[in-house]
Amino acid sequence: VGFWDPKLKGADWVGAVERAGKELSQARSEGDREEAYDRLLAIFDDSHTFRLPAGRLPAQNWGTAGVRIGRDADGYAVKGVIPGTAADRAGMKTGDLILSVGGKKYGRQRVNFRDQFLAFEGAPGSSVELTWRPSGGETKTARLDRTLEEPGATLVWKSARVIRRGGRAYGYARLWGISAETALAIVDLLLDREEAGR
């Protein structure tokens, strides 16, 4: 909890932790404990802050279907496709409309981010069925196999480019997820004119 700013969104973090502690001490099942943690994290009102139950994913070397989705005006849409993954091979593109994931319909109703995450991430070799509609195209369905996911920093480095246009240089990197060390290295690269020139 060290990242938490007690003034962020006016949330009473100390009070929320105390309430969660009481709820956890009275929990009768693992489900009750999970709900207490979910209520605690809900005070962040942040789509990407969630808790995974212990053992749900290994600490490293889990698999991915290779697609990132997010809210869109019409429901959910593809926000990114990891190169070389099942989603990439299936022809998914940014902006494609997501219709269902693992048999669950996706539409205007909000889907918990943890559920979205766990639909696409899991054991290497497992799969998820996805139905989507490309912009202006026909509806498609594919079973996407989860393959070992490369570290986010590796994906960032693979995408990094220095692009020259009109006598100016621009740095580009797709930020799938990134360690602090990689972020600093990319900043150093973009600030070093000699290195950027190479």
Q: Would you identify the regions where 5 or more consecutive residues have pLDDT less than 50?
A: none
Q: Tell me, what's the shape?
A: globular
What structural category arises from helix and sheet content? alpha+beta
Strand content: 15-25%
Q: State the total count of DSSP E strands.
A: 11
* Major beta sheet summary: 6 strands, antiparallel
Return the average pLDDT rounded to an integer: 81
| Share of helical residues | 25-40%
Order of helices and strands: HHEEEHEEHEEEEHEEHH
Radius of gyration, CA atoms, in whole angstroms: 20 Å
Intertermini distance = 42 Å
Query: Helix segment count?
Result: 7
Describe the structure.
The protein is an alpha+beta fold. 32% of the residues lie in helices and 25% in strands. It has seven helices and eleven strands. It has helices at 13-26, 30-42, 86-89, 113-120, 152-159, 180-191, 193-197, and strands at residues 63-64, 67-72, 75-81, 97-101, 104-105, 121-122, 127-133, 140-145, 147-148, 161-165, 168-172.
Task: List strands and helices in order, with pairings.
Blueprint: H1 13-26, H2 30-42, E1 63-64, E2 67-72, E3 75-81, H3 86-89, E4 97-101, E5 104-105, H4 113-120, E6 121-122, E7 127-133, E8 140-145, E9 147-148, H5 152-159, E10 161-165, E11 168-172, H6 180-191, H7 193-197
